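Mods, move this if it's the wrong board.
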Amino acid sequence: MRDKIKSLGTDTAVYGVSTILGRFLTFILTPLYTHVLLPDALGVVALGYTYIAFLNVVYGYGMESAYFRYASTTELGNARQNFSVPFISLATSSFVFSVLLVWQARSVALLVDIPETYISVVYYAAGILFLDTLVIVPYARLRLARKTIRFAAIRTINILVNVSCNILLLFVFRMGVEGIFLSGLISSAVTLLLMLPVIMDHWTWSFPKPLYRELLRFGLPYVPAGIATMMIQVVDRPILEAMTDVSTVGIYQVNYRLGIFMMLIVSTFDFAWRPFFLSHSTDPDAKRLFARILTYFVLLMTSVFLVLSFFLDDLVRVPLFSGHSIIDEKYWSGLPIVPVVLLAYVFLGISNNLVAGIYIEKKTKHLPMITFIGVAVNVGVNIWLIPVLGIMGAAIATFASYSIMALVLYFVVQRFYPVSYELGRLGKIAVCAGFVFGLQFLILPAGWEVPGKILLLVVFVLLMYAMSFFNASELKTLAVLLRRKRKEEVNPLPPSAHDL
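Not the wrong board. Structure tokens:
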């Protein structure tokens, strides 16, 4: 089991390096936007990418998930057919969808409440959606084949191009909102060019209809489920705009994006997790392995949650760029929502782990019901709390929907793929983290916040030990690692001839 977990950890780390680098570079854009765009313009950007996120689900109609399921077993067709059939399907449909968007650009802009002056956003969005859809299956192929370094390199180049174009178009050519979407179009085109070798290596014109029918049967339930999932992620923006104004949406968007650090953990794990559990689903100890992975993953997410909740608020206020803080002061009013957003992502990560049973047993028909429950909770809590709590109400709605979804998903999956998850250990993580998180509001004196928070992190570890969270084998492994580390510090390796 240890070797399998290590393998998952290695893949996650490789995906994580590129994702963290890419997201960090993208994150840099947010404070830059706040210094060159007014909140209403930033609100247009937020709304534009909100609708792109929704349409991504329609454009992809579950073919990525279907590819993973059937290409991992090749129970129908060969490897090339399992690649080309979903690719041809996506290329054809996405072209038609994008042509329709361009043709009806003005009507679309009016429908989604994008001002007439930003009509070009619809044209750029059509191009971005088309190009991004073409690389769905090639990206999935790299993940399934564990070509993690190549996958990570292409993603990193995509982000570097996007960030570079943003800086050039916003600060040199002063293109404003249009420059942001043009940057996305250029980076998507570069990614497709980099993926052409993958496409050519796995291409065939053979198109077996039985395989296509099974791909659609597996993938189409992801359309309503995916739309519902995207609604949970972004529907709070339109509701918030309707109940407040576009400037409030801009403030919410900037602070919501600070949750990117937790999203990095969740997304990088998911990149490695899907091909991993499909590869090990038939192992004799698969269910015990999956349970142990959930425990470790929740521990990791909880530790990250505590660190970010304690220090992120202070960090974003530090003047770094010629006296300017990471986020401009006019956006600071939204900082209290950050811990709530971080915690919401923790439950999203739990859901991503639990969904393994749905993939393995081909029970995607349950996904729409589960995700629409999340949507109903999200919309209801937004409408209830935004008039009372403003943007905090929107953040709580996101947390409520993700946590309810994780709970429902657990009980649904247990019916047809029962796993004995380590609920006692998970409960200990929650109790210790909740206790330490609450202490910061009760005992930290003014002027001692930073050292006090560091001490609280130590208290968290000690509490976990006191509650016997770690079992004997884990403590033994940790002791071996610590001894090895001390030995390396005392007896460092001699310099090589190259170093000399």
